[in-house]
Amino acid sequence: MIRNLNDEFMTPNYDNNETKYKPIDLTAVCIAVAVWLVLSGWILSLLSQLNAVGYWISATVLGLVVVYWHRLHLWRVSVVEHWRIRRFRRLLPRLWLLIAILIFLGGILYAPSNYDGLTYRIPRVLNWLWEGKWHWIDTSNTRMNFQGVTWEWLAAPFIAVWHTDRPLFLINFIPYLLLPSIIFRTLRLLGTGPRKAWLAMWVFPAAYGVVLQAGSIGNDMLGMSFVMAAMLYALCWTRHGKFKDLFWSSSAMALATGIKATNLPLLLPWVVIICFGWRHLAAIRARLFFLFPTLLVSFLPTAFLNWHYCGDCLGTVLMPNAVRSAKNPLVGIVGNGILLILQNMMPPVLPYGAKLGAIIPSILPLQLFEQLRTNFEMHYDLGLGEIPIEENSGLGLGLVLFMAVVLIFFFRHYKKMEWKGWRWQGILLAAGAIALGTYMAKSGMTVAARLCLPYYPVLGLVVYAIVSSDLPFRVVRPAIIFAQGCALFVVVMTPARPLWPALSTLRFLRQQLPENRMVERMWKVYQVYRLRPRVFEPVLASVPASVENLILVGYGDDVDTSLWHPFGARRVIDWNWDLYAREAGTKQLKAYVLMPETILKSRAGGMKNFINDYKVKLVGEYMLELKAARPPELWYVFKSFY
């Protein structure tokens, strides 16, 4: 019989005759804190007190709740007992620990550079804090309004209290530290033996997308962590019938859906697991009311607000020019299937990856390729590069090879294996496959490997539980070491947080190989990532500190977080030209205006016409490079007359 929770890995065995304390479940603690912060965000917004004082009051209330709960349940937690040195005496745990240390160093040494995070996640939090509440933002960057808000509510107290984005990587890093425990416990509840579960707990956290986002402000890895926790506690509920397991599972699943709407199909396999424990419902039906708060931390409030403000629960109507949904489900499945295969099999280094990504679509039948271009964004760009980056990364070659080794061994020896619980495991696997198929049929986004991070555990862990019953250690150990080695290389080499002298080395190579395109490409990528967190900082030299409003007339996806520095000093209004022209024509804008040369020439009629028509004065011009795929561009700073 499978023992409960952490008995075999993280939690020491306490003798009830020697101590009255109960061990603490750190995964449940993380879920509880996340639920509290999300609820605090909504409540403080309703009270128009979304600020540092409001969060200090919330923290005080939380502290009182913890003290009261501790007196009732007598928790005990010891870092020494949870992280005993002997747990890392073997090679696989040591490699995982080394990866975790390097991820932490990268997060400490470098400012966040995730493009989506700097484009709309942090700016939307700063807009809310400026107004003291959640509000529908008047902006051309519509993703500030209709996207899920779980990550933002977790980030808001950091920004409100400390006025910096540097600690935000901890939102992902702390769940990463818990992944081995969650994987081990989940596999044990799925029927996997302790030795096989111990092997898997070190390899699944080696996925490229996981290790790259663990030190970043991306939110896909966080969604994956919540999905895995929901799966774990749902299995605990099925086995033991305890209401607390159902509550933690419901809370984790609600948080996962609150991060991104693309996680909604995963409700199907979660409901399947919950239904396996239907016989326990009668005993807890009086307490089901306490599950209501989990709805408030899910995507439901965001869906209601989207419907209220734009008439669409998902909010996709706000981006009419972006292909975010596949028009043809069959084309969506085929296109996402190709993306998942190519992006998940990305090696640590792929020379001329960008060229290869441009060549592969041309090999496809012309009719199919045209369908893919019309059903997917960016004309079906495969997103391949020379090295993995967090924007496009999924499993990675190492983890794919590990699963391939496991499956090959299974198909060669399946007649000799013992089959236990395969029926309910098969039902769960089918539910996960239907959820993934639903995403593939609907999604028209080309970053499939990254967006599917929460789907991989549901499928991968169940497949591993089914096929690994007689898997010998000598077969998979080299594959696990290779996967961890690939992850280690990716963490060190990532352009977002390089842990090697990247710019110095590339500067030397540029001098020695001045005509080498590969060296030039690497130099440009590393340089853009280095400057991205503060790419607009030079512009602030032309903006007086006393100015409260700075209007960015850009492309709707500019990394404008650096314009907010120092946080709380000014508000950045992100508009496109049409919105600016409408507002400037109806009211006298008291603000500084930042605009690229392209928009100035194509929409404003040139410098002279813009100055005369909108009563502005040129106060500065700067050459900025926002993306590696886009050449540097001249940006102008204007002062409105008032």
The profile of the biggest β sheet is: 5 strands, mixed
- The helix-and-strand class reads mainly alpha
**Average pLDDT:** 87
Helix content, binned percent: 55-70%
* Shape summary: globular
Q: Give the DSSP E fraction (strand runs of 2 or more residues).
A: 5-15%
Description:
The chain is mainly α. The chain has 29 helices and seven strands. Helices cover 57% and strands 6% of the residues. A hairpin with an 8-residue loop joins strand 6 and strand 7. The longest helix is centred in the first third of the chain and has 22 residues. The termini are far apart. The N terminus is likely disordered.
Record keyword descriptors for this entry:
two-stranded parallel ribbon; disordered N terminus; 642 residues; five-stranded mixed beta sheet; globular
Task: Record the SSE blueprint.
Blueprint: E1 22-23, H1 26-46, H2 52-73, E2 75-76, H3 79-82, H4 91-109, H5 115-131, H6 143-146, H7 150-162, H8 170-189, H9 194-203, H10 208-213, H11 220-240, H12 243-259, H13 267-276, H14 281-284, H15 292-296, H16 300-310, H17 329-344, H18 353-363, H19 366-375, H20 397-413, H21 422-442, H22 448-451, H23 455-467, H24 473-493, H25 502-512, H26 517-531, E3 549-553, E4 571-575, H27 577-586, E5 592-596, H28 597-602, H29 607-614, E6 616-624, E7 633-640
Parallel strand pairs: 1-2, 3-4, 3-5
Antiparallel strand pairs: 5-7, 6-7
